[in-house]
Design goal:
Layout: H1 13-28, H2 31-41, H3 45-50, H4 55-66, H5 69-79, H6 83-94
Helix pairs in contact: 1-4, 1-5, 1-6, 4-6
Length: 95
């Protein structure tokens, strides 16, 4: 986890993907949150592993966090990004 990540102001797809992967790692660190991610997205553990580099899967992870503001804020605090950074990363990945 980066200690002082750059803001995503000039984010490209690589920066957005890196932010999403960081958010994914944060999400998976909590078993109940990880299970909720799988339940709500329809992803399987195998599908998540196979799709970890897929922009659609990464955007789905950020969508999952955006849908529950307490998780979005906690993830931002835990990873050093702002909630806006994570939403911007999702938007870039969905473009």
């Amino acid at each position: 986890m980066p200690s002082n990540p750059e803001n995503l102001r000039s984010a490209d797809r690589n920066g957005a993907a890196a932010a999403a992967l960081t958010a994914l790692a944060w999400t998976l660190a909590d078993g109940s949150r990880a299970q909720r991610l799988l339940d709500l997205t329809g992803l399987t553990p195998e599908g998540l592993r196979a799709g970890a580099g897929d922009p659609e899967v990464l955007a789905a992870v950020l969508d999952f966090l955006a849908a529950h503001e307490p998780d979005l804020v906690a993830c931002a605090e835990g990873t050093g990004f702002t909630p806006a950074d994570l939403i911007r990363a999702r938007d870039i990945l969905q473009a």
